[in-house]
């Protein structure tokens, strides 16, 4: 972890992980790479579980915004709203 620099600012940092995901829609493939810093031990399964749980919370919150608050129905776009 010496390559990271400023280790004193990252108390209890154990790992840096990368997750690459892809999505195919028709002929197009979108690839996303995400980097995580974590205090979890060097256990791929545990880090993967934490990443899935992180995105599970995000998706659950988006559902509430879309369904309960109907946020997706808003047609105001940047620089066009009051």
Shape field: elongated
Rg over CA atoms:
18 Å
For the largest sheet, list the strands in their spatial order.
1-2
Total E-strand runs? 2
Low-confidence stretches: none
Q: What is the terminal separation in angstroms?
A: 48 Å
Count structural domains. 1
Q: Please outline the major beta sheet.
A: 2 strands, antiparallel
- Overall structural class, as computed from helix and strand content, comes to alpha+beta
Helix fraction bin:
25-40%
Q: What fraction of the residues are assigned to beta strands by DSSP?
A: 25-35%
How many helices? The count is 1
Overall average residue pLDDT: 80
What is the helix/strand order?
EEH
What does this structure look like?
This protein is of the alpha+beta class. Helix content is 30%, strand content 27%. Strand 1 and strand 2 form a beta hairpin. The chain is elongated, with a radius of gyration of 18 Å. The model has no long low-confidence stretch (mean pLDDT 80).
Précis, in short:
This protein is of the alpha+beta class.
Topology overview:
Blueprint: E1 15-25, E2 28-38, H1 44-68
Antiparallel strand pairs: 1-2
Features:
82 residues; alpha+beta; two-stranded antiparallel ribbon; elongated
């Amino acid at each position: 972890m010496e390559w990271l620099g400023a280790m004193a600012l990252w108390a209890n940092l154990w790992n840096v992980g990368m997750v690459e995901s892809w999505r195919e829609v028709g002929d197009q493939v979108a690839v996303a790479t995400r980097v995580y810093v974590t205090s979890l031990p060097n256990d791929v399964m545990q880090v993967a579980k934490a990443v899935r749980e992180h995105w599970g919370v995000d998706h659950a919150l988006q559902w509430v915004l879309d369904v309960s608050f109907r946020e997706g129905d808003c047609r105001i776009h940047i620089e066009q709203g009051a």
